[in-house]
Design a protein that fits this description.
515 residues; alpha/beta; Alkaline Phosphatase, subunit A; 4-stranded antiparallel β-sheet; 28% helix; metal-binding; signal
Length: 515
């Protein structure tokens, strides 16, 4: 499915125009003339209330330099992490884009807002979510100017009522690719024509998408994610002009979501021959059939260069991992531009900054690619938070959940609680004492099966469509960090299994940190 694109829209009484064009970026990419260099401004007067800058990255797993993964080129995120709190054991509430984001912005767990026909992917289509104040709605009600660009919800049109400056309508910028009336191509005509041909050929073969990778020699803002950066920086400058009004600005980037498309220079940062495919490339031993999601790999299988079934060749695995790394570095550069703008505008000392990836991701580990499964790598996510009062780089191993983000922002900004119950906990006490005792478990829902991560274990009981037991997974992550062997039925783990079953039944309320 194509990702939303860019469209000149009203942004604080200003219209930004842009030329559309060029190629796939998880769908598509199109160019925009490079933005003018950002002029430095002196620091303005101190604001009474803290601003919030949220940086969201699709499909980003905690494979970054600041998480000890030195093979990844992520210098801008690493620099930010040096002044932030790094959460080493942060977990999403649902290992899929839409439900994860709905839960995060509502401050409510997906099992609370569940609906009969499946996970909540559109916040506007769920009766419970529609009645509560989402994070942007709550900040808007407190007098904030609120704006967003890129991928925040799964669909940009969701929750538009909550923002003072809703996501721009991107339909016209999709026109060059999808044939809607609108802008003509300003550049990269040949490149776009090739992508059209590849998409057409893929469609004729029964594939939904074209190739899974792209390394075009194009500027950053030839891709939608580069346009998101341009828009975010422009809005940041506009918001900085009003020192009396606090702001909540959220930017979401699509990469490193498939397709793995990034400008060639980011591919050039890596030597493909040095990339090693996952060695634990089989499903976990002893995993019940209910744990193996039969359609979870469809996201990857739908690309024209990926076989319909069977293992991927080593060469293809290397290419995909290379593409993922390149996309991470591409987004690292975008985040760096936004953070540089925050600094140059004199806003950093008044702004809470958060960076998160919406869920985890598999790159062949456990015989799986992408997400959509109840396994550790699908749930484990990056989370970095910096507040004006806590700017020393530090880390914590406390178990944290994305449902904690809403209450953290509320407390960090000194705001009243929303009318509805927030089902997470503010992380400020943990940031103030990173080694303190914290939650005893984190919970993630997928396919109506609730998985529990404790200090040492991941425990997941499965049920079939009739609610009958369909197996249990138990992974001893202290001794098997790759989660390669399900020990649920091993005799020596029966006492632990019984304890975990009781803890799972007690639920998230019983797992809350004592303050």
């Amino acid at each position: 499915m194509p990702h939303p694109s860019s469209h000149p829209a009203k942004l604080s009484r200003r219209r930004f125009t842009q030329s559309a064009a060029a190629t796939l970026a998880s769908g598509l990419l199109w160019p925009l003339d490079s933005a003018q260099a950002l002029a430095r401004r002196p620091a303005g007067p101190q604001r009474r209330v803290k601003n919030v800058l949220m940086l969201a990255v699709d499909d980003l797993r905690p494979e970054l330099g600041c998480y000890g993964k030195r093979h990844i080129h992520s210098p801008r995120i690493d620099r930010f992490a040096a002044s932030a709190t790094r959460f080493d054991r942060a977990y999403c509430q649902f290992p899929q884009c839409g439900p994860s984001r709905c839960s995060l912005f509502a401050g409510v767990r997906p099992e609370t807002a569940r609906q009969a026909d499946g996970p909540v992917t559109h916040i506007d289509r769920n009766a419970m979510y529609r009645e509560l104040a989402t994070l942007p709605a709550h900040l808007t009600a407190q007098g904030y100017r609120t704006a967003c660009f890129g991928k925040l919800y799964h669909h940009p049109a969701d929750d538009t009522k909550s923002w003072t400056d809703p996501h721009p309508d991107d339909r016209e910028a999709l026109a060059p690719i999808w044939g809607y009336p609108g802008y003509g191509l300003a550049s990269n005509v040949e490149h776009t024509a090739r992508i059209r041909r590849e998409r057409r050929a893929a469609g004729q073969q029964g594939y939904f998408n074209g190739p899974s990778v792209e390394a075009a020699d194009l500027p950053d803002d030839a891709y939608y994610d580069g346009i998101t950066t341009n828009r975010t920086v422009a809005m940041l400058r506009d918001m900085a002009s009003d020192a009396e009004r606090p702001f909540f600005l959220a930017a979401g980037w699509y990469k490193p979501h498939l397709a793995f498309c990034a400008p060639k220079r980011y591919w050039d940062l890596y030597d493909r021959d040095a990339i090693e495919p996952a060695t634990n490339n089989e499903h976990p031993g002893g995993a019940p059939g209910a744990a193996i999601n039969p359609w979870a790999m469809n996201e990857l299988r739908g690309y024209s260069d990926i076989p319909d079934e069977g293992p991927l060749s080593e060469a293809k695995q290397r290419e995909l991992i290379h593409g993922y790394y390149a996309c991470v570095s591409f987004i690292d550069a975008q985040i760096g531009r936004v953070l540089d703008a925050l600094d140059s505008l004199g806003l950093a000392d008044d702004t809470v900054v958060l960076l998160w990836g919406d869920h985890g991701f598999h790159l062949g580990e456990n015989g799986h690619w992408t997400k959509n499964i109840n396994w550790e790598l699908s749930h484990h996510s990056p989370l970095l938070i910096r507040t004006p009062d806590l700017r020393d780089g530090q880390s914590t191993r406390g178990l944290t959940e994305f449902v904690d983000i809403y209450p953290t922002i509320v407390e960090a900004c000194g705001l009243p609680q929303p009318a509805h119950e927030l089902e997470g906990q503010s992380l400020l006490p943990l940031m103030q004492r990173p080694d303190r005792a914290w939650k005893s478990a984190a919970f993630t829902l997928f396919a109506n099966n609730l998985s529990m991560r404790t200090d040492c274990y991941r425990y997941t009981p499965y049920a079939d469509r009739n609610g009958d037991p369909a197996g249990v997974e138990l992974y001893d992550l202290d001794h098997d960090p790759g989660a390669n062997v399900n020990v649920a039925n091993q005799p020596q783990y029966q006492s632990i299994r019984k304890q975990l079953a009781a803890q799972h039944a007690a639920g998230w309320r019983a797992a809350r940190a004592e303050l």
